[in-house]
Design goal:
Protein-Tyrosine Phosphatase, Chain A; seven-stranded mixed sheet; disordered C terminus; 2 domains; alpha/beta; UDP-N-acetylmuramoyl-L-alanine:D-glutamate ligase; 17 helices; 16% strand
Amino acid sequence: MGGIETVEAGYSWCETFLRIDRGAYQAHRHRLARMRTLLADFENPERAYETVHVAGSKGKGSTAAFIASALAAAGSRCGLYSSPHVESPRERVRVLDGSLTDELAVEIFNRIERYVDRISRTTSPALLPTYFELVTLFGFLAFRETRCEIAVVEVGIGGRTDATNVIRPIAAVVTPIELEHTDRLGRTIRSVAAEKAGIIKRNVPVFVARQHAEALATILRVAEIRRAPVHTFRAEIPVFAAQTCGSGTRVRLRLRNGLELSARLRLLGSVQAQNAALAALVMATVRPHLDPAIMSAGLAGAWIPGRSELVPGPPGILLDGAHTERSIRSLCATAAEICPQRGSRVAIFGSVEGKDHTSMLAHLAKHFAHVVITRPGTFKASDVGLLHRTATAVGAVASVHEETDAALTAARALVLDNPNGLIVVTGSFYLVGAVRARLGDETAARLEDVVR
């Protein structure tokens, strides 16, 4: 046994390398070579199982979860690698049948720690692995050691130079693309799409969600160069319908090949239904003989924290880490489906610097009676004063409560006398994680009172 004794300690050790990830993105243009070296030194665990690779600006985590859940329902031992986590880093690496034990995870972390300790004696600190590379290595090793048959791997940022882009998948999936991380991926849809399309491999089928025309053109161009067969949502799913209520979202679809299915999803909103439909398209191609009933059950069972997650009330609290203009717009539509009266809806919003908070707040102003501005943790800088001024400028009725607990209390007070009220927490996964943890503490406290 090495120096790491718990799974949490293992992730905490990886976090000591965060300072490298926070550096200039372009300074690490050779990180794929470093990732390949890491994997080679551990006998290439990523080659021990099949993989599905998922990139995009929005919906990639949910789409990955839908695919993994469907694969697991079909009887495959399936790994899921996703980011960011909402409450616990354990969310990043999962084997859906529970075969990744704490004992095994700790052993893998110690193996990695010993390796890094050894190479650090002859390697410049600036050239050591980053946090994301170490967690990626851990995930790939965990999937091999648990004998996964297949793993669904979500890209961290971008795609072309992301640490996950060392795999040779059986399918590449590109979810909707919009402007994001413009300091890293470029300031046009075309440049962002080119980075995302970097996961497309020669002769490997690529599955494409509904896209902005310029993004689609870029993806198709890359696919043509790499001779990758293309399956687009619009061409392959001629029938699609979705309906949302407080208990879930019903999706019904028919693929061009004739496969029909319907499912009630735990994840809420028409956007989640689109993610599920894209996952079904992937499954119908990589597992063509799968029973539609099993696929439907897999989609129905998919769940990922902090993505269209409804905590029952009263008041109901909808948690969603949407942090782009388009994803906020979709979230507003979902909130309206759950709670039709605008006057009954309150938003808690926090955003870190570098995001398009003006566009996000403009949508919230139209759809919510009040917007409570708060600070989404301290991991990244956030100017709550600027957010409040912006919210007021775009027509929102807004207030500021910097601390998460105070923001939640204020939002609850605003819907106190409304049995049908809805609170939406959004703008940042950091904020969603903090509120989710707070709600968990409240539940635990209530259970203690019952026991007493």
